[in-house]
Fold this protein.
Amino acid sequence: MIGLSSYAGVMESVMNSAEEQQPSSPLANAWSKKQDSSKNQKTKGVGGFVLVHAGAGYHSESKAKEYKHVCKRACQRAVDQLKAGALAVEAVAAALVELEDSPFTNAGMGSNLNLSGEIECDASIMDGKSLHYGAVGAISGIKNPVLVANRLLSEAQKGKLSAGRIPPCFLVGLGAHDWAVSHGIPPCPSEKMATKFSLSAYKRNKRKMELAEKMDMGHNQTKKRRQSSENENGSGCLDTVGAVVVDLEGNVAAAVSSGGLAMKHSGRVGQAAHYGCGCWAENACNMNPYSTAVSTSGCGEHLIRTMLARECSAAMQSEDAHQALLEAMQNKFISSPFLASEDRVLGGVIVLRCCRCVEAQPSQNIQGILVEFLWSHTTESMCVGYMSAQDSKAKTHISRLPPGTVPGQSLAIEGGVCRLMSVVE
C-alpha cells in the first residue's frame, strides 16, 4: 500500500514564496525547454535555489522548532553563497557545514556514537557540471566531513598527481583524517564533537544491549525485543542530512553527511559515502534534457543495496517528475528485489531537477530556469527546507506519513516548482 501525502497542498504554500513560480509538472504550457546556446554569454540576476533535509526518521513535535531552524540556516547559508557568485558545488557544501554544526542532527557535531563510544562520520559531494565526486567514510576527528569530501573533489579536478598517479576520490578512516589535515583542514578531538544528547543516547543504548545479552530469551521474545529496539532508536539512527542546489548558470550539485547508525560497528561505512547511494548530481546533456540532483537519508544498508540516489536521478528524466519519483520509490526501493528479505524499508530522498526555459513570447535578453523539487520518504517523518535567491527567507516543513500507514511499507511524497530569472548580457 502506498500512503501518499498531498503534493498539491505543498504547491499552494510554495506559490507564495515567489511571484514567478508555476504549477506542477508536466511543464506549464507557457514554457518550453531550450538548449543552452549561451555558454559564452554572461548571466546577471539573483542566483539559484537550494533544498535541504535534516534527515528521514522520526522528528518529535517537541524538537520540530530546532529542526526547522537549522534547515532555515542551511538554506540561508547556501543562498548567501549563490548571491556572492559561488557555483552550486560550493553552495551545497556551505549548506552541509551548517547542518553538520547543529547538535540536533546526526552529522558532524553531535553524531551518533559507535559501539566503542567513538564518532565516525561519512560524507560525500557531487558536482553535476564536472561529474566529479568526493567522499570520506568512517572518519574521526574532523568537525566537518563534507569539507574533506569537497576538497577531494576539487583536488581531483586538478588532474593527475606526480608520476601520473590517479588522485583519490574516496578515503576512509585514519587515512582520510591524515589527508584532511595535510590539506589544511583542522582536526577536532572526537570528545569535543560529542554532545550531551549523543552521550546520553550512547549510555542508554549500551545499557539496553548489555541487559539484552544477559537475558536468556526465546526466539519470539528476541524478535519482539529487536523490533522494539528499532522503533525506539529509529529517530536517532536515520537522520542523515543533505542538500541539493542549482545555481544561476543551471549547474547542479548534491551532498550528504551522516554520523551513521547508533551503536554501529567500528569501521562501518553507510550510504552517505557510497557513490550513487548518498547523493547524485548531473547537469543536462544531449542524452538527458534535465539537470538532476538527489540526496538521500535513511538506513544506509537499504540505500546502498538499491543505489537509490542514482535510481531517482535517472527517473527524473521522465516528463512527470512527481509520478516518476513515486514509481522509483515504490519499485526501486520499497519493492526492490534486493530488499526482499526486509520487513521494513526505511529511507527518504530530496530531488531537484531543472531546465533552461523561455516564455511563450521570449525576450532575447531574459532567460529562465524552471526548477522542480520534491521529497519522499518511507520513514515516519522527514524535515526539509527550501529557498530561492529571490526569497526573503527559507520555508521549512516536516513531512509525515499519512495516518494509518506503516513506516517502511508506505511512502509520502510532496514538492513544488520555482522559476529563476536572469538577464543575459
User: Anything to note?
Assistant: The longest helix spans residues 64-83. The two ends are 52 Å apart (CA to CA). The chain has eleven helices and 15 strands.
